[in-house]
Amino acid sequence: MLAAHSKDDAHRATHSDASRFSAHLFSSNAARTGWYRYFFAIRYWQMRRPSRRQ
């Protein structure tokens, strides 16, 4: 896991798309919280969605 504790660390980790994406996701607690909130919202919606196949 990339641990970017400052914006300078995030900017230095831009030598590839993968590291740039990781820096964007993990550069701050707010971004990480937003990502998990979005992910679990999708999972919750998929589980609660009535199945059309039945």
Strand content: under 5%
Number of domains: 1
What percent of residues adopt helix (DSSP H or I)?
Answer: 55-70%
Order of helices and strands: HHH
Number of helices: 3
Low-confidence stretches: none
For the termini, the CA-CA separation is 41 Å
User: Kindly state the mean pLDDT as a whole number?
Assistant: 71
Gyration radius from CA atoms, angstroms: 16 Å
TL;DR of this structure?
The chain is mainly α. 67% of the residues lie in helices and 0% in strands.
Q: Can you offer a commentary on this structure?
A:
By secondary structure, this protein is mainly alpha-helical. It has one domain (7-48). It has three helices and no strands. The chain has helices spanning 7-12, 17-26, 29-48.
Features:
54 residues, mainly alpha, elongated
Layout of secondary structure:
Elements: H1 7-12, H2 17-26, H3 29-48
